[in-house]
Amino acid sequence: MELPPNKPRAIITGASSGIGKATALAFAGAGIDLCLISRSQDKLIDVAHEVKEYGVQVKVFCADLSEVSTVRRKVQSIVQEWGGIDILVNNAGIAYTNLLRETPLTDWEKVLNLNLTSVFECVMGVLPTMRTQGKGTIVNVASIAAQTPFPEWGTYAISKSALVTFSQCLAMEERGNGIRVTTISPGAVNSPLWDTDTVKVELNRSAMVKPETVAQAILQAVLLPQEAVIEQLTITPSIGAL
Ligand code: NAD
């Protein structure tokens, strides 16, 4: 595994906690400059302080990505300021449990907007530049729920399976332009996602994969030499689905 000759620049969404924060730290350890996007300015600044210990450049960008009409412009402005972009990690997402018949339209839209449409908009914010450069790596964080839907996880599973299909189509359309697309589908990961008020499930947290382990897998995918791509990666607790 090797780094590109110039110092790479990565945008990571949802970098204030869990997998996104762990990925920011793993990327920083590998010498990758970062732009971290999330909702909470305070949490992002804390992550940025930790990241700076590795001697990389870090910008923070506070945004609610579920407000999808503003996302593309924000991402374009980051890319413009940097004068290029090497890696985009679309990690921000919410989990949501509810019976489909009891899911209000507003909840459905919130999940789909963040987990799917904001990814589309982030990708469209970097794609013209990656195409001009003739290279770039996009990592989309999906879920095993995309492959194996569970009752009460319908809205979430639909958002993630659509994300997987989006990633596959994007990979096919853009691989000829030097753009690599990786979809990572984690099983249960011990992140703050399980404490959010849209998830009503109790699972054995200690049996879950650590966010740092997922982050290492993302880093390895990104650092593969340019001639190779990991298009699909599933990572689950070694004891199986919880
Ligand atoms: P997390 O709750 O710790 O992190 C989610 C991140 O997304 C946070 O930084 C949060 O601030 C950000 N975010 C949420 N809503 C946002 C919004 N509207 N605008 C901008 N940022 C927003 O959870 P996590 O487990 O680290 O989740 C990261 C990704 O991994 C998600 O896409 C999730 O669906 C996926 N995933 C998680 C698990 C798991 O078991 N934890 C399993 C499979 C997939």
Topology at a glance:
Blueprint: E1 9-13, H1 18-29, E2 33-38, H2 41-52, E3 58-62, H3 71-82, E4 87-90, H4 105-133, E5 136-141, H5 154-174, E6 179-186, H6 211-223, E7 232-235
Parallel strand pairs: 1-2, 1-4, 2-3, 4-5, 5-6, 6-7
Helix pairs in contact: 1-2, 1-6, 3-4, 4-5
Task: Give an overview in words.
This protein is an alpha/beta fold and about 240 residues long. It has a single domain, classed as NAD(P)-binding Rossmann-like Domain (Rossmann fold). A seven-stranded parallel beta sheet has the order 3-2-1-4-5-6-7, sandwiched between helices. Helix 2 links the parallel strand 2 and strand 3. Helix 1 crosses helix 6. It is globular, with a radius of gyration of 17 Å. Bound molecules: nicotinamide-adenine-dinucleotide.
